Amino acid sequence: MQLFDELNEKNYVLFAIRHYDNPQAVTREDFYDDLKRFKYVKRLLKRYQRGDELKTHLVINHMIVLYNVFGEAATPLLFYKLDESLWSTVKAFLMFLNRLPAFPKTSLHAIRVDIEALAILQKEYYGKEQD
After folding, report:
1. Domain ranges of the chain
2. In the chain, what is the straight-line distance between the N-terminal and C-terminal CA atoms, in Å?
3. For residue 66, which of 97, 92, 45, 89 has the smallest C-alpha distance?
4. How far is it, in rounded angstroms, from Cα 54 to Cα 35?
5. pLDDT tens figures, 73-94
6. For the chain, how long is the longest CA-to-CA vector?
7. Taking the alpha carbons of 7, 55, 70, 105 in that order, is the dihedral positive or negative?
8. Residue 121: which pLDDT band, with cuts at 50, 70 and 90?
9. Are the CB atoms for 22 and 66 separated by under 8 Å?
10. Neighbours of 37 (CB within 10 A)
């Protein structure tokens, strides 16, 4: 079994370090500041789940930074760090950002999509309702 076959509390930081690529980061704190973005996304999505407004711009900004510094490893890190109850909303953002892995055999394709979140994204960024 390889070290990263399954992310867990013991290996997710090593996995993140292995995939971290931020030329502007010079200290360990810079890495951990970027890692905190998963927590910020979680907080924003939990607020939306509780009935608050979906702050799409903030979530998208955090996700873009995460993909910029962790590359494709941001996807498994997102699903590891976020509660399963948030996965359908995360999937809506990944679809919107065209970051959902293309190969259909992944377990991500079995997760339902938060249609309301996707509709909000479509309306805010394209000015139209989802078809």
Report:
1. 12-126
2. 44
3. 97
4. 22
5. 999 999 999 999 999 999 999 9
6. 48
7. positive
8. very high
9. no
10. 21
Closest CA to 84 of 112, 56, 126: 112
HEC string for 65-117? HHHHHHHHHHHHHHHHHCCHHHHHHHHHHHHHCCCCCCCCCCHHHHCCCCHHH
What the block records as the tokens of 99 is: 């970051």
Query: What is the distance between the alpha carbons of residues 100 and 104, in angstroms, rounded to a whole number?
Result: 10
Is residue 69 within 8 A of residue 21, CB to CB? The reply is: yes
Nearest to residue 117, comparing CAs of 52, 40, 65, 39? 52
- Provide the whole-model pTM: 0.88
The size of the chain, in residues, is 131
